[in-house]
Amino acid sequence: MYSFYKKFEHEKISFAYFGVISDNITEMLVDLSDNHLSKTKDLKKFSHKASFLIAESFQNIIRHGVMEKDEITDYQYSKDFFQISVSDDRFLISTTNVIENKNVKSLEEKIERINSLNKGELKTLQLEVLTDNMIHDKGGAGLGLIEMVRRSGLPLLYKFIQLTEGYSIIVLNMEMPVSKEVMEHKVSIDEIEHLYRKLTENDILFIYKGDFSNESNKNLISLLYNNFESDINIISNKIKNIVSVIEVMQNVSKHGKKMNGGHEGILSLSIKNEEIYIECSNFVEHQHYKAFKKKLKKLKKCTMEELEDRYKNQLKQSIRSEDEDSGLGLLEIARFTQNKFSYNFIETEDDEIFFSIKFKTI
Fold this sequence. Notes:
By secondary structure, the chain is α+β, with helices and mostly antiparallel strands. Helices cover 47% and strands 22% of the residues. Strands 4-5-3-2-1-6-7-8-10-9 form a 10-stranded antiparallel beta sheet, sandwiched between helices. The protein is elongated.
């Protein structure tokens, strides 16, 4: 988990997602990014553009992607992928989706043409497309791609990777810098492909790095619930467990070391052999490290009966004292997982303590 944190270290938020593509998910991602953009003076003015580009990127996946993938379901790298990142100087969106090889040439030509045009020429092309009503069965003659380049101010980065004789994936990257003077991309298309492959190899459904504010927590929980609600392989009581556990995990993260003006951490959810795994990490203060580690060791030695007794006693104490840092979060995790969670501490090169906890839902 620490390697993923280092990857996203310099980003205010980063959210990578392999799940269901729907209007509900789009709305939640817009809210998630807007929550952070609105807090940054230089990026606040881009909030409306960012919302449009998130929605357009999702539509682009649907418009150019392959909805039925029966012929390539066994191929590891055939998942639709979406990532948003917010840093101090730019907003970034990356997508990956499967397309039919017969459409690769025309899509590449379309992107190359759009990338070669200046602002005035892009506006002219956009008007031509709208006027001529050049609409086909995939939704539009590059109108979405035109809008993405116009609003971002930089060309689209892209890469086609062949999967089979009939299918390829397209990796697409769009960046919107704060300064209009910026003419270079911060992230290469090869870096996006590498991240996509690494996340896929780890069976990750989503990974989020950023501040665990109440608003962010609400959006993440809603996204998760909506994702599994449409999956007939996930029974309803398991959905409730996932949501409950994530709420607890986020609560635990709030009591980590305060960084960048908030309670920053990283959360991932992965699915392996139809089992759901959750992992959450954050930094802890040096002065709390030993006591926290001791508490975890003691907790792991408890029987289920002892856990229930400790939970009831702790709950009574927290109600009386209104203590938010009562340790109920860890007890909740132990109870939910039948005490089958794992954890570790890493002493980083910067002399920080990085804590991770991982468990499988029961």
